[in-house]
Amino acid sequence: xxxxxxxxxxxxxxxxxxxxxxxxxxxxxxxxxxxxxxxxxxxxxxxxxxxxxxxxxxxxxxxxxxxxxxxxxxxxxxxxxxxxxxxxxxxxxxxxxxxxxxxxxxxxxxxxxxxxxxxxxxxxxxxxxxxxxxxxxxxxxxxxxxxxxxxxxxxxxxxxxxxxxxxxxxxxxxxxxxxxxxxxxxxxxxxxxxxxxxxxxxxxxxxx
Length: 208
Fold this sequence. Notes:
25 strands, mainly beta, 0% helix, seven-stranded parallel beta sheet
């Protein structure tokens, strides 16, 4: 797909829609609906698009557990026009996806990744959480803008690689990431400073 100018695009699983390049498009939604939604589609390249919306901007979702894997999202400008929790500017479910060299602004979360993906070389400025990720992800060489009471990076689970990220911090801000560890019947939350990697706080509780 090239040079599409439209309100929103649903990109789903189809034998003719594999290994596609979606580039140089302007996509904008004017209501609470995902602007670019992809499900059950692998090995695609989304590059140099401008995406705006009041809900998720670029969304690799999973209908019936049919996630999208091994896609590349790079060099896009993605703008969330809402601070609502329904607006994750880039939201990725699935594994093996690469999110790199994007300019991301607005939205409740800037870049949100549920599973094992690579997030690198992005410029992120969001309302609540700059970068959120789950297990065994790589987060490196990102610029994260943090203002008001936002969180720069929030990492849940074990096994992620976090290095060479830079933060632009404004007054009353906090930049940290969180590690969640489940061992037997105990759940431990560890909060780290995302620059020095020093442990800020640790809380352990019984699993319910």
